[in-house]
Amino acid sequence: MKQLLEFIPVILFFIAYKFYDIYVATAVVIVATIIHVSYTWLRRRKVESMQWITLGLVLVMGGATLYLQNEQFIKWKLSIIEWLFGIAFLGSHFIGKRTFVERMMSANLSLPAVIWKRLNIMWGVFFLSIGSINVYVMYNFSTDDWVSFKTFGVPGLMVIFIVLQMIFLYKYIPETEE
User: What is the Cα–Cα distance from 28 to 121, expressed in whole angstroms?
Assistant: First the structure.
């Protein structure tokens, strides 16, 4: 359920863009993100760091888009967030005793240290790649194409990456007895 709620601002952005334009869609995503973070705070009394960062970037980049009437700012937000994720994953190799992916998944999965490190590197490179692909799309395709890429392409690439990750991890998952 939590993951589904994360997509509501993106879905509302897409719908607003299709019915109006990038500026209305930007205003909608700003309001939707504020509501989403507020809802999270009211329900759990806690908001994840990346949600705060996302909200801050939506406010700054979306605000700049609206104030300066320049759609490039909202387009850059995706790359900045993906690059921050990538840097966080890769940086976790040097900060703390466990990698970022191990901290997130070790309660559900037991892997050798070298596999945690490989998995973490894969996630870091994936996020850095998505940010770079976004820059390519925003400068080489129309805004319509960019909105479709942001709404469907990025989640699609994420699904493909997760499936490939599951194939990679399959041999490390213990068999359960029935």
Answer: 34
